[in-house]
Specification:
The structure is a homodimer of 353-residue chains. Chain A has 16 helices and seven strands. By secondary structure, chain A is an alpha/beta fold. In chain A, α11 links the parallel β5 (198-203) and β6. The longest helix of chain A has 27 residues, at 293-319. The radius of gyration of chain A is 21 Å and the shape is globular.
Chain lengths: 353, 353
Amino acid sequence: MDSALKVNQGVPQPPAINPRAREIIIKKRSRHLDVSACLDGIRNGNIPILAQAITLIESTKEEDRKKARELVSACLPASGNSVRIGITGVPGVGKSTFIEAFGKYITSSGHKLAVLAIDPSSERSKGSILGDKTRMETLSNDPHAFIRPTPSGGSLGGVARKTRETVILCEAAGFDIIFIETVGVGQSETAVHSMTDFFLLLMLAGAGDGLQGIKRGIMEMSDLLVIHKADGNNVEKALQARSLYQGALQLFPPAPSGWTPLALTASSLEETGLEKILETILNYVRLTEENGFFQKKRAEQAVYWMRESIDDYLLSRFYGNPHIKKVLPEMEKKVKEGLTDPFRAASELLKLF
Amino acid sequence: MDSALKVNQGVPQPPAINPRAREIIIKKRSRHLDVSACLDGIRNGNIPILAQAITLIESTKEEDRKKARELVSACLPASGNSVRIGITGVPGVGKSTFIEAFGKYITSSGHKLAVLAIDPSSERSKGSILGDKTRMETLSNDPHAFIRPTPSGGSLGGVARKTRETVILCEAAGFDIIFIETVGVGQSETAVHSMTDFFLLLMLAGAGDGLQGIKRGIMEMSDLLVIHKADGNNVEKALQARSLYQGALQLFPPAPSGWTPLALTASSLEETGLEKILETILNYVRLTEENGFFQKKRAEQAVYWMRESIDDYLLSRFYGNPHIKKVLPEMEKKVKEGLTDPFRAASELLKLF
């Protein structure tokens, strides 16, 4: 844990800036940005500069991409010193209030928190919260928190790359806890799982109800289940659900991390259970740093993203080809209806390409 | 269920052939094979011809591949009328004895059973049973059963394609139940899950022990857990485990199939619990045919395999490139050690290509 969290001390805290003013500054500056000045700014924890740098990462212009690559490489040696936490849960589970409450608890405990999201625009409407930053008003105004919505547009692969590069920048800027949020109903949770150290699944007490539509396999990949909205009349139900899930988690195959997943309860409204959640996460980090899994997983994730990035590039040349784009839906329809076999269809499409 | 299982009646049953004699015939004939004669043979349930045709599918020669593609396309209209069952479980769980016992029960109930496997050679040593066909002696000699080991060599993508094409041929030959076996410790279980209608996970009563090394997420993807070796002194422990797991399964997110996964017990030694397993599978088929999920999933799987096949081809041109093959391990090492960032490494490799 020490090595993951040691950065926090000694990094100058950025001044509190009104978020609206901040955005105006960002828009004005992002067009002309010098890489080494930018690096200095980031290393000094300058939030407007960090925000501009992320805008570079998100840009599709080749000139910006080139600068962005330089900047990410330059930040790399100063990165890695954070705990990266994936947070998922279906719409209605209260993700935004949880991130707001837990985030506040984290910054008040002396940490610096960055909140990122990964759902590409097509999945955003299904309930990703960060498009609607105003729903996290307190955290938006917290000088020790940095909230960045999902970059707009683009494929999951593209969004994932941008988010992962943003993590590196945020770490170089001294953020020692990073949330990556996803709605968990599509493909993005695999991407989030592949770029975080710890995976937290938010749930509700009514078994099933709170999970409608969530992808199978997510529960089993989680390091911590949090039964949310454990307040008012709901407390007893939440505690019951917690105990049921805790039992179920023990039946799962042992995780390669050596960690036994836990179930906890929390209320964002009453701000209860948050301390225990942070403690659990830090326990996980301590355990896995000691047994070497933390470092091993990060190394494997880095290779995974190198390969993903290669694959994404190679495949996008095919799927982005105008001719293929035109023919593909028709071919898919034929395959779906069993009029042609998938492998023949594939080889026909490849011939066209 | 009716549509999935109706093929069985009226298909001529193949003569019982000594398996050793069968293999000699196959080896002799596979070099010169006429597509339309082959199709006739398959449609008549001629096992030696089916086996030869599969050898064509497994061949890497372009001439054979062309014939194989024609044959698969020709068989397509007669395919689809089976229940495709994925069976997974770690080494030691008793997969071979289970497939032998359950397979015998299936053929004695009037079905025709094909048993295939998917683990590529690199994973085979971890416990796939079908390399060792002799361990299923009774089933090997059953005229209503057809056992085909994993094709040797090749990537998972290649093996998966061959297995999926083999399914089509087996269906055209009148096999109405198809097992696809995998060891579940690597990547192959995702492939199996993506080509089967029903996913069965074999387990042992000692929670955890019997699951060591199994991939996280598999339990949650399963439609049926079977607590195996429920015999002798083990019966009570198995029943307890069953009830624990049944409770846990109800806490999982609802499956899009509308099916609630079950836990059952079975003994291959005492041949108990097998009837209930078949009944459960057929109940699943009935439910999902009625609610449309069965057909929907098959259509989605077909599109999945078209895309997988395209991706596999495009990526293999990169990863198979001699220059890339030489440089890749070095680059991976640098990425693992954090000396370069994954996206920069990816773009450098792509430049080399």
